[in-house]
Every structure is written in C-alpha cells, then in structure tokens.
Amino acid sequence: MSTPPIRAVLTDIEGTTSSISFVKDVLFPYARTRLAGFVAEHAADPDVAGALAEARVLAGRPDLDTAGTIELLQAWIDEDRKAKPLKALQGMIWEDGYRSGELKGDIYPDAVAQLTAWKNSGLALYVYSSGSVLAQKLIFGFTHSGDLTPLFSGYFDTAIGSKLEASSYTAIAKEIGIAPVEILFLSDNTRELDAAREAGMKTIALDRGEVVIPPDQTHPVVADFHAIDAATSTVRSAN
Question: Distance between CA atoms of 129 and 136, rounded to whole angstroms?
C-alpha cells in the first residue's frame, strides 16, 4: 500500500524556524528586565493578576507578595521553565515590544521561503511550540519579512499536551482533521520527533548547528528548509 501524501506541515519554532539564540538571548532577557515594570503598570489587569496568582499556586506559595512573585518568575525565566503563567506574562510583554517596533521576529530566510511555497502549493501549515499561542503569533506576525501569520491555519502550545508525548500529536491531528500519517512534523528536538512519529506522523529533524543531534537517532536530518520536500516528507538530494 502506498503512503498517503502529506497534507499538512506542523512546525516547531525555536531551533527550527528561528534560532535558539534569538529566544534565549533576545526574547527572554527582554521579558525579564521588563517584568517588574510591566506588572506594576498593569496590576489591575485581570489577566496579569490571574497569571501572578496562578504562578503562586504553581509554586506552592500562595501567600507570596508581588515582589516575591516577580523574583520567582524571573528565576523561572532563567531556568527556561515551561510554566503557563510565565508564558502568558512573557507573551504580554513581548506583544508590547513587537507592537512598539523594539522586537522583530527572527525567522530564518529559508523557512520564510519554503513555508510560503508550501502554502502556495496547497499544504496546510500549523505551529506547535512550548511558547504560548500569543507568543507564536507575535514572532510570525512582526518579522523582518513582514506579517507571516496568514501562512498558518492554526497554532498549538502545551495546553494541548507535552511535546514529548505521542498523545499531544494525536490530539493535534484530531483537532485539525487530518490523519497523522498525512502530517509532517519538523523540529530540532529528536525526542519530540520520536513522540510525533509514535503518533503516526512523518518527521524530519532540523540541525541548525545549535543543538547536538544524537548520532543514533533515526529521523532524516536537514540543515535548512530548502532540503525538505514537504509533499513527500523526504529530503532532497544535495545535487
């Protein structure tokens, strides 16, 4: 029996469409240094107050004051902790930065070119990242190449589940209404790729030179999007 053609591409962001250094060296410090001022300015905002309260509960410290909660969140930023209230607050702060022009989404040119070509060829494009959906829309909405959000049909964050669990990819496939075998997942994290493949998706690893791809892993590996034939989930020859 022949393999069904790919109908959708699901892509990670950090280390895949964007450099890890942009997230770690630009976005995280931007949010960290502005966190206290942002909280003070927006203390009456229900979304901000709710995120702070959720962070206290998550930390098991419901009586922590505002200053202590900010210190807690800053420590979580330093740890790159995947905490929902932190991601929510980071997204709000980044939104201010993007809309003011201080931040520009750093998307690899090869990713811009190929995502556009895939969209034009009829493939549906989706994002799955540990960053919040808001953060995903911002990084693609305010790029050096303009607003790329029209390319995407949907966004998923860890609200749908851990990126290391096959059930998350099954849930994504169900939500978008496409069989897992007809979805190609792209990531620099081979554990994520393992989970996606377990769910039935096709997979390709991106090696941008920022992480070590285990030599014993079994996913096709490419250096950039130009080497990917998304329609067949194969790697193009260097020739």
Answer: 7
Alpha carbon distance 122, 178 (integer Å): 14
Query: Tokens at residue 42, please?
Result: 């927006």
User: Which residue is associated with the tokens 């203390």?
Assistant: 43
- Per-domain residue ranges of the chain: 8-18+105-235, 23-100
Average pLDDT for runs of 10 along the chain of length 239: 87 97 94 96 93 96 94 94 92 95 96 98 97 94 96 96 97 98 97 98 96 93 96 77
Please give the angle made by the CA atoms of 212, 74 and 76, to the nearest 5 degrees. Answer: 50
Angle of the 84-100 helix axis to the 66-79 helix axis, nearest 10: 90
Tell me the CATH architecture of domain 8-18+105-235: 3-Layer(aba) Sandwich (3.40)
Q: Are 201 and 181 in contact (CB under 8 A)?
A: yes
* pTM assigned to the model: 0.91
Residue 44 CA, chain-centre distance (Å), reads 29
